[in-house]
Amino acid sequence: MVYLTCIVLKFLNANRPYDAVNVILSLQNDNGGYATYELSRSYSWLEVINPAETFGDIVIYYPEVTESHH
């Protein structure tokens, strides 16, 4: 396992982990949650003009903000 780690680190640019963390943090919503694929960019009042009552509360994606302890 140590040998494999050395091989991976040999080819891994030192800035890549920082870049990855920056991308993850840039996708975080203001409330601390994460949407499925992009930032939530709309307002809750937009649900009022949703013409399909059957599909209520689907115009805006509400990301889950929970804390899990394992």
TrEMBL record:
<dbReference type="InterPro" id="IPR018333">
    <property type="entry name" value="Squalene_cyclase"/>
</dbReference>
<protein>
    <submittedName>
        <fullName>Uncharacterized protein</fullName>
    </submittedName>
</protein>
<dbReference type="InterPro" id="IPR008930">
    <property type="entry name" value="Terpenoid_cyclase/PrenylTrfase"/>
</dbReference>
<dbReference type="GO" id="GO:0031559">
    <property type="term" value="F:oxidosqualene cyclase activity"/>
</dbReference>
<comment type="similarity">
    <text>Belongs to the terpene cyclase/mutase family.</text>
</comment>
<dbReference type="GO" id="GO:0016104">
    <property type="term" value="P:triterpenoid biosynthetic process"/>
</dbReference>
<dbReference type="GO" id="GO:0005811">
    <property type="term" value="C:lipid droplet"/>
</dbReference>
